[in-house]
Amino acid sequence: MKETTMKNKRNLIGLLIIAVLIISIVFISGCRKQEPLNPTETGFLHVEGKKVVDQEGNEVFLRGFNVHAGPLIFASYKDLSERHDIETIDAFNDQNYKYYMIEDDIKDMKAMGANVIRAHSYFSFWTLETEPYEYDDGFIKTMDDFIDMAYRNGIYVIIVLTDAGESATGMKRNIKHYGGDILWSDEDFRQRVISVWGYLAKHYADNPGVAGYDIINEPGPPTKEDFHSFYSEVISEIRKVDKNHTIILDHGYYNPDVEVRWGGEYQDSNIMLQVHKYADASRRGYYDPSQYESREKLEEELKLLLSYDEVNKRPIFVGEFSALWNSGDKGLQWTRDVINLMNQHGIHWTYFPYKNVGGRNKRGLYVAKDWWLRGTTKQQRENLEITKQLRERLLTSNYNTYPKLRQLLEDGFRNKGHSEIRQTQ
Questions:
Q1: 119: phi > 0 → left, psi -120 to 50 → alpha, else beta; which?
Q2: Which of 31, 237, 344, 400 is most buried, taking the most CB atoms under 10 A from its CB?
Q3: What pLDDT is attached to residue 85?
Q4: Helix 187-204 crosses helix 224-239 at what angle (to 10 degrees)?
Q5: What values do phi and psi take at 43, rounded to 5?
Q6: CB contact at 8 A, 352 and 121
Q7: What are the pLDDT digits (tens) for 52-105?
Q8: Residues 35, 37, 38, 39: is their CA dihedral positive or negative?
Q9: Measured distance CA(116)–CA(81) in Å, rounded
């Protein structure tokens, strides 16, 4: 009897020791700094024929959001070097970016079923380049933190270079900053844009959280030859230092010569082709969803895109698409049909945007309740005197949202690429 009691005590002590060890391991794991997902779990994405695959060869359908920071969230050394040192400017940018997109936002996207972010306007050429061929490493550190946060939560990031060659009316930041759309006419500027891709590719060459490099947002090349030459030089510059990442080539815009397209053929096999598609209501010169005819008409347009020789050889990516909120049910129907058709044809896509900081045109899943800098003076902004209270207005919790659109997008993300999503009630 006594031996049995002693045996039970020893067993109890053993169980207690095991329990303490388990609790200790869990506690230590919880306290350990969070690291990006192990590359062996997800790995680098790359193109094989018309598919995007992971390192195990499994097909991946990229579905997600654009994250659009807007024109007033970042500060540039070029604008403010006479007033502030680079460290002060970097600290300002770091705080604003980290209020604008927090980890709860990434988790929200993941919970909906998204797996990628197209970081539109995050990698601003105007902010990144401090002097010709010199770059702001502090700003890149802020971008590194963003990519790590996304990847840690199972979301890839597509790096998009903006403020270097856009040609859209009302979006000519390179024209505003540099005095003209000079990417296609100024050889030194062109080489600076090419060089920045060498810098970015070298920095991110071993980072599996980056899904790809989106070379330039909505370019407006004057000729097919100019376009092909520029893209060829960028591809060459990237491949000198980075063989891992997919390169994404955006379509030429605002040129009546439809043959410009993506500039022609390229020898590199790890390339995706991109287009953008919008249905805007109440804006002159844009397609009005209230006049939306049918899914069949939309599918005809899509099939024309898919018939191009270039698209027959490579994956296609709709990098931006959306309708304004005030387009109502027709806008939702257009969005639903676009997503259905993209999924049906295995097209990759990112909705534009996750959140809209401006609050003027109601586009995106979340829209700011009012202009985020309302009540501040130009002098305050130039002095980087944006208070914590104003920064907190960047948090998504202060934004309006569109529940019907959310349900529609969530259905689209969770679709595997080939069947219909249900009608939004």
A1: beta
A2: 237
A3: 96
A4: 40
A5: 75, 175
A6: no
A7: 999 999 999 999 999 987 756 788 898 899 999 999 999 999 999 999 999 999
A8: negative
A9: 35
Domains along the sequence of the chain with CATH: 43-414 (3.20.20.80)
For residue 55 the two structure tokens come to 């390192």
Query: What do you get for the CA distance between the two ends of the chain, in Å?
Result: 70
The whole-angstrom separation of Cα 136 and Cα 49 is 37
Is the CB of residue 68 less than 8 Å from the CB of residue 121?
yes
Give the integer Cα–Cα distance in Å for 254 and 339: 25
pTM assigned to the model: 0.86
Half-sphere exposure of 296 (CA within 13 A, CB side): 1
Could you tell me if 219 and 166 are in contact, meaning their C-beta atoms sit under 8 angstroms apart?
A: yes
Nearest to 114, CA basis, from 339, 389, 387: 339
Residue with tokens 């700003």: 139
> Which of 207, 173, 423 minimizes the C-alpha distance to 295?
423
Q: Which residue has the tokens 């997800």?
A: 42
| C-alpha separations of 357 from 71, 141, 260, 384 in Å | 9, 23, 33, 18
Question: Is the Cβ–Cβ distance between 333 and 322 less than 8 Å?
Answer: no
- The tokens describing 160, both together, are 């998009």
Rg of the chain, C-alpha, whole Å: 24
The 3-state secondary structure of the chain reads CHHHHHHHHHHHHHHHHHHHHHHHHHHHHHHCCCCCCCCCCCCCCEEECCEEECCCCCECCCEEEECCCCCCCCCCHHHHCCCCCHHHHHHHHHHHHHHHCCHHHHHHHHHHCCCEEEEEEEEEHHHHEEECCEECHHHHHHHHHHHHHHHHCCCEEEEEEECCCECCCCCCHHHHHHCCCHHHCCHHHHHHHHHHHHHHHHHHCCCCCEEEEECCCCECCCCHHHHHHHHHHHHHHHHCCCCCCEEEEECCCCCCCHHHCCCCCCCCCCEEEEEEEEECCCCCCCCCHHHCCCHHHHHHHHHHHHHCCCCCCCCEEEEEEEECHHHHHHHHHHHHHHHHHHHHCCCEEEECCCEECCCCCCCCCEEECCCCCCCCCHHHHHCCCCCHHHHHCCCHHHEEECHHHHHHHHHHHHCCCCCCCCCCC
pLDDT tens profile 250-301: 999 877 777 899 999 999 999 999 999 887 644 444 455 556 778 898 899 8
Q: Which residue, chain included where needed, has tokens 């770059």?
A: 135
CA 296 – CA 301 distance, rounded (Å): 9
* Number of alpha carbons in the 13 Å side-chain half-sphere of residue 205: 13
